[in-house]
Amino acid sequence: MRVLTRREELLLLARRQPEVVVDQLLASEQEVKELLAKIGKLEDQKALNSTNSSKPPSSDGLAKPAPRSLRQKTGRKPGGQPGHPGHTLEQVKKPDHTQVHRLYLCPCGRCGGVLLLGQPVLDCERRQVFDLPPLRLEVTEHLLRELKFLAEEDHQAWATHLREFLIEWKNNPITPLGLDEKTFKRAHARYKAIVIEGRRIHPRRQPGQGRAKQCKAANMLDRLEDYDLCVLAFLIDPDVPFTNNQGEQDIRMIKVKLKISGCFRTFFGAQVFARIRGYLSTCRKQGRNLWEACYQLVIGKPFMPNLPTANS
Fold first, then answer.
1. Which of 50, 230, 287, 289 is the most buried (most CB within 10 A)?
2. Is there a domain that residue 95 lies in?
3. Whole-structure pTM value
4. Are residues 191 and 252 in the same domain?
5. How far apart are CA 25 and CA 269, in angstroms?
6. pLDDT of 181-225, one tens digit each?
7. What span, in angstroms and rounded, lies between the C-alpha atoms of 142 and 166?
8. How confident is the model at residue 309 (pLDDT cuts 50, 70, 90)?
9. Do residue 220 and residue 276 come from a single domain?
10. Number of domains present in the structure of the chain
C-alpha cells in the first residue's frame, strides 16, 4: 500500500471535508499573524538605542550607533565659502574687567632677576580674553526620539517630516517671542497635514472596535492628534520649554547616585544629598558660578536665590 504524501492527504481531505480544511487554514493564518507580530516586536526591541528611545547611552555597549545628522549634503566644503567677507574677534574699547599684570623682576635671564620696583615703564602689552558663557547640556525631547525610531526602523516618512517640522520651529528665531495667531494657524495646519499623512497608513481605530492592540506608529498618531496643542505649546507661550531638559536634569544626579552606590545608607544621607543637589541646581538656574557658590556655602554665607515678586 502506497503511503500518501502530505499534499495528497490535504487534497483528499479537501474533497471529503472542505470545511475542516478551511478551519485549519484560518487557524494557521492567525498563528502566522501572531508569530509575525512577535517577531516584529522583538526586532523593534533590538533596534532600540539611546538615540531613538529613552534608553541611556550606557546600554548601547560596544555597538554604539553612529550619529546621523538631519542636514542634507550640499557638496560644499566646511567653513567659510568663497566670497564670504569673513570676520575676526576685535578688541573692545571698554572691557568688562581689567587686570594689570605688573613685572616685578627682570625676565631676561642674564641679570639674575633684577628688582624692577621704582623703574619707569618703557612699554606695555595689551591682551583681551573673551570668556564664553557656560554651556548647558540639552537632551533631546522623548517625542523626537520616538519619531526618529519610527523613521529609521519602521521607515515612516511622516515621522521624518514631523521631526524636521518640530526642529525647524525650535530653531526659528521668532519662536522665543511667541507666534501670533496667523502664524500659529499656519504652523498648526502644517502639523495636522503631517498627521493626516500618517493616518493614510495607520487609520484611527473606529468606535466599537474595542481595545485591540495597535502598533507604535498608530499609538503615536493617536497622541499627536489628541494632544496637538500640548505638542505645539512652545509656539504659543514662550515660557513653555521645547524640551523637558530641566526636569530630567534635576533628577539625573539621583539616578547616577543610585547606579553607582545602589542606595543611600541612611535616610539622613539621602536628605543631605538632595539638599546639596538642590542648592547647586538653584544656583545654576540663577546664573551663579558654582565654585563661588560652594565657597560661600563652606564659609557659612550661602547664596540666597531671588524669589519671584507678587507681580511677576
1. 50
2. no
3. 0.51
4. no
5. 64
6. 999 999 999 999 999 999 999 998 877 766 677 888 888 899 899
7. 13
8. low
9. no
10. 3
What's the grid cell of residue 56?
Answer: 541611556
**Nearest-angstrom CA–CA distance, 142 and 140:** 6
For residues 185 and 223, membership in a common domain is answered with yes
150 with 199, same domain: the answer is: yes
Instruction: Please tell me whether residue 294 adopts helix, strand or coil conformation.
Output: helix
| Pairs from 169-174 (Cβ < 8 Å, separation ≥ 24) | 169/234, 169/235, 170/234, 170/242
Q: Encode 104-115: b = buried (16+ Cβ within 10 Å), e = exposed.
A: eeeeeeeeeeee
End-to-end Cα spacing for the chain: 97
Task: Please check whether residues 200 and 150 belong to one and the same domain.
Answer: yes
Q: Show the domain range for 25.
A: 7-47
Give the type of residue at 264.
F
Q: For residue 42, what is its C-alpha cell?
A: 522583538
The residue that leads in pLDDT, 31 or 54, is: 31
In a domain, 171, yes or no: yes
171 near 197, Cβ under 8 Å?
no
Q: DSSP code of 161?
A: H
**172 part of a folded domain:** yes
Tell me if 64 is assigned to some domain.
no
Asked if residues 257 and 265 have their Cβ atoms less than 8 Å apart, the reply is: no
**Cell triple for residue 199?**
493616518
26 and 43 inside one domain:
yes
HSE-CB for 16 with a 13 A CA cutoff: 6
The grid coordinates listed for 290 are 558654582
Whether residue 152 sits in one domain with residue 223? yes
